[in-house]
Amino acid sequence: MTDLTPITALGDSVPRVHTAGGYTLRENADLALASLAVARGVAAPAPFGLGLPDAGGLAVGEGGRSAFWTAPDQWMIAAEGMAETDFAASLLAEVPGGRVTEQTDGWTAFEIASEDAAQIESLLERLVNLPAAATAPGRATRTGLEHMSVFVLRRTDSHVTIIGMRTLAASLWHALETAVDRLGGTQ
Amino acid sequence: MTRIQGGLIDRNRPLSFRFDGRSYSGFEGDTLASALLANGVRLVGRSFKYHRPRGIFSAGSEEPNALVELREGARREPNTRATVVELYDGLVADSQNRIGSLEHDLLSVNDLFAPFFAAGFYYKTFMWPRAFWEKLYEPAIRRAAGLGSLSMLADPDAYDRGFQHPDLLVIGGGAAGLMAALTTGRAGASVLLADEDCRLGGRLLAEGGVIDDTPAADWVAGVVAELENLPNVRILTRTTVFGAYDHGVYGAVERVSDHLPEPGRKVRQTLWRISARHAILATGATERHIPFGDNDRPGIMLAGAMRAYVNRWAVTPQARAEDPVAIFTNNDDGHRTALALAARGVPLAGVIDTRSGVSSLGEYRTFAGATVTGTKGRKGLSAIELRHGGTSEWLNCGALGVSGGWNPNVHLASHHRGRPLWSDEKLAFVPDDNGPQGLLVAGAARGEGSTAEALADGARVALTALEALGISGTAPAIPVASEEPSAIEAFWHVPAKGRAWVDFQNDVTVKDIKLAHQENMRPVEHLKRWTTLGMATDQGKTANVTALAVMAELTGKTIPETGTTIFRPPYTPVSMGVLGGGDTGQRFRPRRLTPTHPWAEAQGAVFVEVGPWMRAQYFPRAGETHWRQTVDREARAVRASVGVCDVTTLGKIDVQGPDAGEFLNRIYANLMGTLKPGKVRYGLMLREDGIAYDDGTCACLAEGHYVVTTTTANAGLVYQRMEFARQCLWPELDVTLISTTDAWAQIAVAGPKSRELLSRIVDGFDMSNDAFPFMGCAELTVCGGLRARLFRISFSGELAYEIAVPARYGNALMERLMDTGKDLDVTAYGTEALGVLRIEKGHATANEINGQTTATMLGMDRMVSRKKDSIGAIMSRREGLSGDARRLVGFVPVDAGEPVVAGSHLVAPGDPVDMAHDQGWITSACYSPHVGSSIGLGYLVNGDSRLGQEFIAANPLEGQSVRVKAVSAHFVDPEGERLRD
């Protein structure tokens, strides 16, 4: 175990949390990510038992693992609480011969939750130019948000994960914080 | 006071406001215009060119005259139409475009010089003397231009944006729009209904009629209640759909807080981008006027507006209730205004109707076959001259309503160059079916203007839209509306000796149009530009068709033969703030921060913007008073001991697959497929046309697994082009590309003591030259088990490495290196020293690979392999490129105290400084602490055979001329021994 101390994408020692009028915005520093690609025409594997989804799909499996489609024959595999591990190696062990690339620190994940699903929808229509079908529960879409490239993962009615480039974390957090403050009525 | 009973204002909520410093009162539901009229204020502004006194002309967003500066301080907004400003308590507005008071505007002297300001005045007058243009004319015109003035303070408000994706967008919530929304909403379509007004109803609110035996306003309330209960219908009031764009996208601005004294916690406005599968344009119509002599006096307004003020705002248009009101019309609608006024007990001077043989529709006098030929009343109408039966007479009147018919609001239907069609029957341009795809037009916007027609048409068009959407719908019962007479007879203007205004806001008269015709500016687009007709902030909503008619009369052509103007977005003015989204200052655009940013900030680094990145430029220490001191120290430290620099910004692309080597062979000009695991190779990429476009290193981590490094600036571009090649050019190659730029924090460790420093953090990795030679790479662990990648590459020319760790550990690794290397005098260096070091070494970067240079010019022509094909290889061998004689060389000043300036062009001593004698240019320059003088890199014709020759580096822009000597581009260790040590 290394003796170096990591920092979060926002540059802090602990993940940031912000609440506003029913919204909770939380930096998720524990989400491990690795991309998986297979050769064209090869049947999609099932790492960790995940059924890898088609375009726009988000698959949720056991143990906090999930997968979403990123390109033909290519997926992002995510695992809660595994960011400090060599998750890419774990994934490769699941899919021998697969093309795995470590992505954990290529991205930053911000979790947005509200008990009121309508609040999540109001927020999404301010953030991303996507029709409701693309942000319905179980959907994952790559799109632009304030000139930044993001993945929008609608995990449930009341929970959406925005995954953006790590180096843009501060700008993305600002955009999300501003939006929830405006809609949450605290600004 | 001219307030009457009734109306849709809330008399329980009185509001006070100020106009030009005087206090007035109004009610909730008033606009600034209706409240001013209620207080007997008729003079509200001055015209653009002649500073003529002007009053309120309309009751909507088409207003050309009643423009004010709204609010105070930083929120002051000029050119605000009083007719669409919702009154709030404490509102402050001032008249504009005047010197002195509104009553006694000193600039009204312009009116005396009107003959000199005719159409084309600027073009004719400011042609000569030529030299006067820049110094005198343009500044003078700029000072005089515009109407209101800006506060010159930063906008204090926030703006938002959002996106909507309805099945159907209904633009306009009048009779047609409400029926369309109701029909489609009931059918289950997702419907967005947008209206620029604060309440739905459109003209129904202004007409005060009866629908289904209930007052129109109540019928509207019932429909709105039903729509609000439909979960699939969304209503946006105070929202102007200002433009139709490609692919069914519409732009709309919601004025969230403009009706409030201050936005408070809310945003001021929201920009909505609406992607609609279909849209219905139900924007109604705008009344046009009939130009006649002196028709611009305060108190003269559109007859339909007069009716709106009476019915909706309970206000009559004259200054005093006892003043009689007259109507001038060519159609039945003018008579409806007379009826509305008469019903409220307003004294009527009569209806002047251009049509012969018409009679009154009620208890008032009608002058059939008559015209208005003149007016009196400098600051407010007092009398009109009536020509009737060959005689003239003056009638006292305090207000005149003018109606020349209605122009359908076809604007959005024209936004894709859709040309409206002229209807002889309706005497109006109506939309053709050549407008934006998916846009249907309903109601008065396509000439179906009576309430009954609009209600039926809204439902009918809605069913068409539902069919197009594939949703089954049911035709609703069409509400019964009272019959509205609507006969009209063409009459476009009253010939006058004096001026008859067509476009009020830009002061364009019938005479100006005649002059344009006389001067052969007859095509509509010429007419527009010669006279400035329709070019003011109202875009000539009340003027354009009338102007066309006048021009048609002059040319003897029909109106459609004369043409029509093209309408472009925005429909009404849109603030730049809302278009910009409100992001300013540091938030103007997203910023990328390097993994060591927190550490660099703590060190007091000075940052520089490099594209979206913020990079540490240099790290000043106490006692250093000039950046050069810092940079020289940092550069020296690298050459003397060891320096560390965050180089995460360089692009990193993970390339995997059995065909990865072949793929890279085709991407790079040089052979890359032969690279063995554990090795790094420098690579050059060419564009398709053979020009060099990026360089970097490629590391082979394992068989079929590479990491391509790009320059910072081209990281995205190279990745994009590689993806294009993978997907489109060579889909047969089995290869996968993933950007990992952000995933890994990469730190350059450079200098003779770099090996020693790194040895202290690696976990048992053999750093010896034999085990890990120059251009080696390895995956290893550092600092007790952290996975890392190590590359032995050098940008500085020194023994150097780049070490990469997962980005979250980058900051800690930097701290560790600085801490561990204290005894080695480890020094952090920024981009400035990085530049110095690479110039000293003669390494090319974006300054040299600038999109105009070739591998040959870089001295890398042999890198373009002939053993294989690659992008740009063949094109690089064409004569125009391969024959380029310029070569990259170094330069030093002959006098060591002189600077070398990047961008300077090189000429032989004694030659003129011009392009005919150009010998090349300096691409990069810096002060080199190693050399002890300024140095530079640059391209010189036959440079490789002219080392030692002197040239003049000329910088005519700054008057510099420096004698320089061409030298080898490698100022440091030309044999390359240090980096291999």
UniProtKB/TrEMBL annotation, chain A:
InterPro entries in UniProt: TrmE/GcvT-like (IPR027266)
Species, as recorded: Tropicimonas sediminicola
Protein name per UniProt: Sarcosine oxidase subunit gamma
UniProtKB/TrEMBL annotation, chain B:
GO terms, biological process: tetrahydrofolate metabolic process
Residue ranges annotated for the SoxA A3 domain, each copy included: 497-582
Membrane spanning stretches: none
Keyword match Oxidoreductase: yes
Sorted UniProt keywords: Oxidoreductase
Stretches assigned to the Aminomethyltransferase C-terminal domain: 886-973
GCVT N-terminal domain mapped to chain residues: 597-868
SUPFAM superfamilies: Aminomethyltransferase beta-barrel domain, Folate-binding domain, Nucleotide-binding domain
GO molecular function list: sarcosine oxidase activity
Pfam family, one: FAD_oxidored
PANTHER family: AMINOMETHYLTRANSFERASE, AMINOMETHYLTRANSFERASE, MITOCHONDRIAL
Family from the record: Belongs to the GcvT family.
Name of this chain's protein: N-methylglutamate dehydrogenase subunit C
Natural source organism: Tropicimonas sediminicola
